[in-house]
Amino acid sequence: MDTTYASSAVKALPDAPVLSILINHPPFASMERKKRPRNDRRLAELSIILKRCFEKTIMLQNYARSVIEVTVTILSFDGGLLATCCNSITLALIDAGISLYDYVTAVTVGIYDQTALLDLNSLEEADLSFITIGVVGDSDKLNLILCEDRLPLDRVERLISLGIEGCHRLKQLMNETVREVGTDLLSKKQ
Amino acid sequence: MTLSPAERSYIYDSLVSPQVARTDSRKPTQFRPLKATCSFLPNSNGSSRIFTADGLECITSVKAKVLRTKDIGELIKVDVDIQGQRDDSDLCLTTSSILTRSLVDNLDHSTLKLTDKYYYQLFIDIVILSLPTDFQMSSYTLYSLISLTSMGCYLALKSTRLPLLISTTNDKEVEEEPTFSDDWESCTDLIPKDSEYNPTLLFVVGIVGNNVLVDPSLEEQQVLEHGICVGYSNGKIVPPLESITLSTVGGGGVNKKTIFKGIDMVRQIGGVVEKALDLIAEQEPEDFERAF
């Protein structure tokens, strides 16, 4: 785990909660059956990125001296791994009643020639350069960004602005679902 | 969770009495409530999700591959992955070996046969999403998992669909690789509706005094004297039939009549369970996976 980051968190908040994120990739998730070792480096990397992102989103002061354990199981994989994990963790945290400053929604944006493409599938991901961005609520603040390919610098801005628009739409959809489920739960209680 | 001596003796006395009174007022032949759905994984040939009230959740996927072999033993591979446990932990290995054996022993090979040389190989991957902390240190885990995962396998196998074979099934003279139809609409069921073959279901039966109870709960298993694991398929009792140490305290001898009583009970309820699971397997997939 990233020790430098942990030490800075300690300085800010002495009893900060421990957030642990575990990503589980069962062999049947992808099209071709392939077994991944439990300590897969790629997944460990992703979980660190997500951990950093959510440590900025959860209201840490409400959860002093506690552990928040998040387990993500990938049931079917077709691109946008990090983005999907981020969105599902946001929803799961809301479902668990953990206070967040706002939604974090993430999406992948790729570029083909001059065209920016939103939400690539795994075939597209294999061939195109892409970037994953996560946006806080309805703002333009990026909470998460991951780029592992070469991108022409003059296109990056266009990509990010398309991504932000996509994230805002996602936030709307997620918000609707959360409210639907919430009303449903409330009606059952009465 | 450990019971106090007083609780233990109360539960024991109510279980051993001629009018069995179980802690959750079930009948001796009654299971705890289960929920299940089928064929919701788009990347698998068959899948099932089954979960109990006490928080165990099991996702099973069946993937098929074409294999050139004559060895029947390697046609079914079961792989169990339990959250929070190592892959080579006792629990994972024992569960997967019991399941593999039970499925392979009663397998109808004609369902997997493509041609004289080629067979389908089935990869059955089981993920247990969460183990309640109460269970983690107890022998109970394995036994509650056995019956849950076997039902998961049953549902997943029942909902497995395979592409239509369009090449000939006879390749004795001509060497021919099997070819399949591209049209997913014309897929076939791995186990056709009118087939005689059903995958094995495993039942865990607890024995206390002269009474037998199916699907003992965590409280009950702490006072049981013994247990048996019984396989059931198509109206018959099939292997494995093994004695399991359900009890965490001493445990006593078992009358052989009681064992037969347990087996009879499985024969009685097996058909009902099969029917109930078949109904779930036939149901149309739910809304959320129509999105795929």
Automatic annotation (TrEMBL), chain A:
Residue ranges constituting the Exoribonuclease phosphorolytic domain according to the UniProt record: 14-98, 102-165
GO biological process assignments: exonucleolytic trimming to generate mature 3'-end of 5.8S rRNA from tricistronic rRNA transcript (SSU-rRNA, 5.8S rRNA, LSU-rRNA); nuclear mRNA surveillance; poly(A)-dependent snoRNA 3'-end processing; rRNA catabolic process; TRAMP-dependent tRNA surveillance pathway; U4 snRNA 3'-end processing
Record InterPro entries: ExoRNase_PH_dom1, ExoRNase_PH_dom2, ExoRNase_PH_dom2_sf, PNPase/RNase_PH_dom_sf, Ribosomal_Su5_D2-typ_SF, RNase_PH
CC per GO annotation: cytoplasmic exosome (RNase complex); nuclear exosome (RNase complex); nucleolus
Gene3D superfamilies: GHMP Kinase, N-terminal domain
Gene Ontology MF, one: RNA binding
UniProt xrefs under PANTHER family: EXOSOME COMPLEX COMPONENT, EXOSOME COMPLEX COMPONENT RRP41
Family statement: Belongs to the RNase PH family.
Entry protein name: DEKNAAC103633
Lineage of producing organism: Eukaryota, Fungi, Dikarya, Ascomycota, Saccharomycotina
Automatic annotation (TrEMBL), chain B:
Family, similarity comment: Belongs to the RNase PH family.
Gene3D superfamilies: GHMP Kinase, N-terminal domain (3.30.230.70)
Localization (cell): Cytoplasm; Nucleus, Nucleolus
InterPro entries registered for this protein in UniProt: ExoRNase_PH_dom2_sf, Exosome_comp_Rrp42_subfam, PNPase/RNase_PH_dom_sf, Ribosomal_Su5_D2-typ_SF
GO cellular component: cytoplasmic exosome (RNase complex); nuclear exosome (RNase complex); nucleolus
PANTHER family assigned to the protein according to its UniProt record, in alphabetical order: EXOSOME COMPLEX COMPONENT RRP42 (PTHR11097:SF8), EXOSOME COMPLEX EXONUCLEASE RIBOSOMAL RNA PROCESSING PROTEIN (PTHR11097)
Provenance organism: Brettanomyces naardenensis (Yeast)
Domain of life: Eukaryota
GO molecular function, one term: mRNA 3'-UTR AU-rich region binding
Organism classification: Eukaryota, Fungi, Dikarya, Ascomycota, Saccharomycotina
Example of a GO biological process term: nuclear mRNA surveillance
Alphabetical UniProt keywords: Cytoplasm, Exosome
Name of this protein: Ribosomal RNA-processing protein 42
